[in-house]
Amino acid sequence: MFQDRLHNLANQSLLRRLRPLGSATGPTVELGGRTVILLASNDYLGLATHPEVIRAAIRATEHYGTGSGASRLVCGTLPPHEKLEEALAAFKHTQAALVLGSGYQANVGIIPALIGQGGLILADRLSHASLIDGCRLSGADFRVYRHRDLDHLESVLKRRTASQPVLIVTDGLFSMDGDLAPLPELAALATRFDAMLYVDDAHGTGVMGPSGRGTLEHFGVEHQIPFHMGTLGKAVGSSGAYVAGSAELIQYLINTCKPFIFTTAPPPSAAAAATAALAVIQNDAARRIRLWTNRDQLYTGLRRIGFRLTETVSPILPILVGEADKALVFAEHLLTQGVYAPAIRPPTVPDATSRIRVTVTSEHTSQQLDAALAAFLQAGIAAGIL
Question: Domains, the chain, ranges and CATH?
């Protein structure tokens, strides 16, 4: 049975395989016995290998061990988790924060805690899979609105049942297209229709905004959107997720969010690493400046070569290819040229929109990016993309 299904995936160019690495995921990685430029990592600020972040993880492991023992409601709360939540609340300018094991766990747990049967959820069509799953698990009526289409969203809001609870769900920065949700307008619609707005800022935290606080800071709507979630495994360079908001909300989620209640807490090392990374984000603005400088170099170069990109405004630079088989061929030519940037295919993205999702970090050098651009040119020609 499984072999037939795998065979069908392979026939559609949708079969995935793991590629073992021989090094940390920095600007370059060891892959297949050679060093290649990595343009696929979400470690936007290079903090996963920052010495202070590593030292914080080691100290926490030596003092508290490698595991947390159980759920924090069962086994007690360790100081690294408390310190991280205090640091997150201070960084995000909220009363409190709560840490969970992953962004997926957060979304499939928080959304059902916010709304249930009898309610209505309206989600952007390109929302992350974890958001969609959280919406479905809630038991609420669930509809999608066209990507970033405020008129479509408003038309659905106008047709809702009177006094029906409503939750609007969106990414802040969309991970596969690199564009931003129109948060000011979404916040205004939420206020006008007495709806809650749930923002997943996984890819915005540490990257967007003058201080790196995320997409809400970028748009200046932190006071209009009272809570949001994000992850710690991207620009923060650790693992896990958070929700930041009022003290009342956090206490409510401690008592109602199933992945928090029924999952062993993240290891103390991950919490300590994230706390150290938040300090670096706030004290080392040069990293964010380098990130955007590198982004502009790569974006300009890819456009100049002739690739078709999405309407990205972020360090996520998707090159649209179309069919999955063509994207796979392009990715293999890239790897031959010394660049690792895998093909992204359905169901991660809609049919006929397969792409090479290029991501850049603050730690890439200008010379590495020049070499990568030369590789993209050669691979694009070999794959028939250019």
Answer: 13-42+285-382 (3.90.1150.10), 51-283 (3.40.640.10)
